[in-house]
What we know:
nine-stranded mixed sheet, six-stranded mixed sheet, globular, 407 residues, alpha+beta
Amino acid sequence: MQQHARVVIIGSGICGSSIAYHLAKRGWTEIVMLEQGSLISGTTSHAPGLVGQLRSNPSLVKMLQDSVELYRTLEVDGEAGYVEVGSLRLASSPARMRELERQQAHAERIGLATSLITAEEAQAMFRMMETDGVEGALLLPSDGSAKAPILAEAMRRKAEALGVKVQEQSRVTGIEVSGGRVRAVATLEGVIRTDLVVAATGIWSPLIGKMAGVNIPLQPMQHQVVWTEPIPGLSAANPVANMRDPDNLVYFRQDGQSLVMGGYELDPRFFEPAAIPQNDNPTKSIFDAGHFQSLMDGAARRVPGLAYAPLARTLNGIESFTPDGEFILGEAPETLGFWTACGFCAHGVSGAGGVGKVMADWIVDGQPSLDLNHMDIRRFGGKPMPDGELKAQTREIYRDYYSKIGY
């Protein structure tokens, strides 16, 4: 057990691995990355894997573009972690089409390549879709599909090659704080003296934060996804584009010869972790077919073949949502030396590459390389949010993720 470290990163998922890699690239090699269970066993292990870059905030778009630029280079034993299949955003209503037109103009202003295409052109890129009611689509050609475990492992290996120490099956039991700053991290195996901790701990971040006297307003939400059995006509050699149909509240991507589908119900459900469970992957819960039915219905309207496609796999994954829909990054005002990288609102894979870079710059240089005021944990003032208020706001963020128009 290493007894001293310049930085202790808690969490070996795609975000923690990215931060470790980027810090090591900046020359900070006295780093220990801790994982409570097996490596890559949390949300990263089951992320749906759609990588999209278009967001309303230019700093976030740049962060997502940095992710794609990095992911293009990552592989493990010859297997690529990112496939640039492009993505489609459909407009299944006139109001949504006007939104796509605004989004296309916004993308042009910030230098993200997009184009507006017809329903028939979209169908050529996603052969199974029904065009009835589709007003058009926004094409983002550099978006793609990620294999999050491969990306995380690739960055972890690069970090280790630069000197980062990785300890799995190493559960954090406490964080020592004195004089208003972090002094050490306690684990079941021993204590690591350090002045800087980064919590890249997903849904467990509020519990880790409490160990350091830090309030992290984050609500775990249930997010269900299904995989079909192999579908005739789907080929890994000629994949369809990723597709989002927000009017039907659903998204799709190809995985081998299967189709992956998920979405955002109008009646979302919370997940309440009173403690971190002692099991192999506590970020998986029991799939509820009844609760998922509204999304299945919406998916079948757009891809009729789904109504008859047997399911090979179902997942009720747990995702972190914040009360304003923004990431939670930076050093906590309550406890110096305690840094957060969490609250990714179901696009942690899209963001992780860029998050690692900007977090490393922030830690090393003392300020971020992008304007991150809207993501800085200090925006919450270091004060706890009443539980009812947190739940109400995160419920609205999840419910409106696709349903709201007004970009």
